[in-house]
Amino acid sequence: MSVASTGVAAPATFKAALVQLRTGKSVDANIEAASRLIRQAAAQGASFVATPETTSLMELGAERLFANIVREEDDRALLAFRHLAAELGLYLLIGSLAVLAGEGKAANRSFLIGPDGRILARYDKIHMFDVDLGNGEAYRESKNYQAGEVAVLADLPFGRLGLSICYDLRFPHLYRALAHGGADFLTVPSAFTQQTGAAHWHVLLRARAIETGCFVLAPAQGGTHENGRETFGHSMIIAPWGEVLAEAGTDPCVILADIDVARVREARSRVPSLSHDRDIKEPVLSRPE
Predict the structure, then answer these.
(1) 125 given a catalytic annotation
(2) What pLDDT score was predicted for residue 7?
(3) Catalytic residue among 53, 59, 141, 214, which?
(4) What is the DSSP letter of 228?
(5) What integer best gives the mean pLDDT of the chain?
(6) 3-state secondary structure of 269
(7) How far is CA 227 from CA 23, 58, 189, in A?
(8) Is 166 annotated in the active site?
(9) Nearest-angstrom CA–CA distance, 75 and 44
């Protein structure tokens, strides 16, 4: 797995905000709902704002999905959010948009937008959510989406950001690679199901923070959506030692926390596990003598 980066920056203290959504079937309505909460976050002093996975459209069926998405350069949601970031003068992570990627597939793509409206980084979700949860609830993300292949880091004035999306959360080696690449913060924009979220959301997010010594910023979709899907919500901001600094319920909202990057160095000095990593060879099956 390769890791792409955009440069080096000095850490600082800043206010981060997560926007929790309940995305529906209308792209224009979804842009309006997200923009309203992004403005609210900016009014409360946030200089970094992140939205969940599938910010502009929540569709599972291939026919409806592909009828409503376009290539990145033609995506009106992305253009609207670029203008909004420039208007508000903040760093804006759009957790993901579905964009056409060619060969009959879409990309589930995260966009980091700077305060001048430029796109600073893109990340395509690497791990596809192909699962059967039982009781008729099944997902085949790989049917419609093309998996990404590159882990992505981006530098902000506050420190280094490592990007991921939703199901990636279950693959700790991705976050370990991002941490070894210098990440101070990890973003996990998500649309976790109600079932998997209730069972695993809190423990997985806290584990990723503790394992890497990073802040974890996880904006989520929450509630029952227009297409009938139910998502878990509970957007969370977690400190490098594992403390939950802010948490939402299930309704659309904004949560905020002050982020002091010195806490990354503090956590890693107390338990320097990143420096203790060793290459593990293929396990050997022990047999009785």
Answers:
(1) yes
(2) 47
(3) 53
(4) S
(5) 93
(6) helix
(7) 9, 7, 20
(8) yes
(9) 28
Distance CA 164, CA 118 (A): 20
> Measuring CA to CA, how many Å separate 238 from each of 7, 120, 170, 235?
25, 24, 17, 10
Q: Which of 59, 141, 166, 214 is catalytic?
A: 166
Instruction: Report the amino acid identity of residue 260.
Output: D
Element (H, E) at 87: helix 76-88
DSSP string, 171-196: -HHHHHHHHHTT-SEEE--B--BHHH
pLDDT in tens, 123-153: 999 998 877 877 767 777 888 999 999 999 9
Query: What CATH number did the domain enclosing 39 receive?
Result: 3.60.110.10
pTM of the model: 0.93
Per annotation, catalytic residue among 59, 125, 141, 214: 125
Closest CA to 166 of 40, 55, 5, 244: 55
Concerning whether 53 is annotated as a catalytic residue, the answer is: yes
Tell me, yes or no, whether 175 lies in a domain: yes
Whether 83 maps to a domain, the answer reads yes
